[in-house]
Amino acid sequence: MQLLEILKESLPSLTTGILVTIRISIISLILAFILGIILGIFTISKSKILNAISTVYIYIIRGTPLMVQAYFIYFGIAPLIAQRSDPMVCAIIAITLNASAYMSEIFRAGIQAIDIGQMEASRSLGLGYFKTMQKVILPQAIKIMIPSIINQFIITIKDTSILSVISIRELTASGQIIVARNFKPLETYAAVALMYLVLITLLTLLSKYIERRLHRGHKSV
Amino acid sequence: MYINFILLYFLDMKGDIKMKKKSIIGLVLSAVMAFGVLAGCQKADASKEDASKKYIIACDSKYAPFSFEEGGKYKGIDVELLEAIAKAEGFEYELKPMDFSAIIPGLTSNQLDGAIAGMSITEERKKALDFSEGYFESGLSIVANAKNSSLNGLNDLNGKSAAIKKGTAGSQFAEDNQSKYSLKLNYFDDSPTMFLDVENGNSDFLLEDYPVIAYKIKVDGSSKLKIAGDKLSSVDYGFAVNKGKNAELLKKFNDGLKKLKENGEYDKIVGQYIGK
Asked: Structure pTM?
C-alpha cells in the first residue's frame, strides 16, 4: 500500500512532466519532419551547393551528442544572441536540429529505394521532376519510410529526457526531483518508466494502424 | 589453465581425430578454461576481502571547493579530509565522484558505503541516512548577478526565478518558499550550470552554500555574481551512510575527524580553500 501512497503523491508532478515531454516532442517532430524533407531533397539534388549544405549539416548534427548540442545552444550560443533566453525554445531548437538530420537520411533512403524506372517512365510520359516526385515517387516512398520514421519519433521522445540538463522539467527530471524528496528511487522510477512505456506504446499502435491502412490490398513478405 | 593449452596443442598434432570429436573436446576445454579463470578471480577477491574492506565512498563530481577535478585528479576539502581521515584510521576506500542527485539513492540502495559531498545534515535526510558529527559549518546564501542592483536580499525575491540544483538544501528552501515568494524554479543537475544560468541572466538568483560561492568569487577575480543579503541559515555538513549500515565506518570518520582537528591538519586543509 505504501507503493500506492508514493505513486499518488508523485502523480501530479509526473503528469506535469509528461505534458512537457509531449509538448516538446510534438512541436520538434513536426518541425524536424519538414526540415528533414527539405534536407533530403537537398541531398539528392543535382546542385553541388545544396548537396554540400545538407552533407555538412548532417555530419555535424549526427557527429555530436544531443546533450552537448543542448548545452551548446542554451549556455553557449543563446547568451550571445539574447539578454534572456527561454530554455524551452532552446530545447525545441536542439531536438528539431537533431531529429531533422536523422529524418533527412530516412527520406533520402526511402526516395532512393524507388526504382529509377518509375522516374524515367513518369518523365517520359511528360510529367515534370517535381510533379513526378509529388504524384509518383513520394507516395510509394512514404509507405516504405513509415517504420523508420516512427522509429525516429520514438527515439526522439525518449531523447527529451536529456533536456533536463538545461533545466527543462520533463518527465525524467520530475522523477529525479521527487526521488530527492522521498528517497524511493525504485518505486518512483518504475512509475516514470511506466509512463514512458504507455506513451510510446500508444505511438506504436498508431503507427501499426497507419501501416495497415496503407498496405491494404498489397501483398508482401 | 596451461594444461588446457598443452592438451589443445597435442590435439592438433593428431590430425586424424575426427572433426566432431575435436570440436567437442575444444568446447569442453574452453569451458574448463573459462571456469578456471573465474575461479581464479574469485579466489583473488576473497583473499582481498579477508585482508581489509575497501569502502566505496562517493563525492560530488563538481562542487568546488569541496570536491572538484584539477589536472586529472580530484581534490578539495571533502576529498582531502577523507584522505587524511582514512590514513589516520587505517581504512581503504575507493572514491566515486558523481552527480549529487545520484548520491542519496546510491546510499539507500547500498551501492555506496558512504558519501562525503558537501551534504547538509537535515531532519529530512536523517530519516534515511545516518550522519557523522558535522565536519563543516555552512549556510545558504542568495546569489544574484553582480549587475542586478535590484536584488539585495530576501525581501527582493518576490516573483523572481531561481536556479536550483536538484536534491540540495537550496532546492528544499526554494520549494518550501515557492508560493510565499511566487518563485519560478529552474532545476539543474550540477553547480556549474546553475551558476551559468544566473550569470547569463536567464535566472534571477540561485541558492548556494556560502563557502562555495565565496570560493567561486575568490577564484573568478572579476566577479559576475554577488552575495545578496545575509546567510539564510546555518547548517553543518556531514559524512553520510545508509541508515543502520556501516556504523564502524561512521565511527572511524568521527574518530579521524577529531584527530585532525586536534593536530591542526583540519585547519590546514580548510584554510587552503576558504582562507579563513
From this structure: 0.76
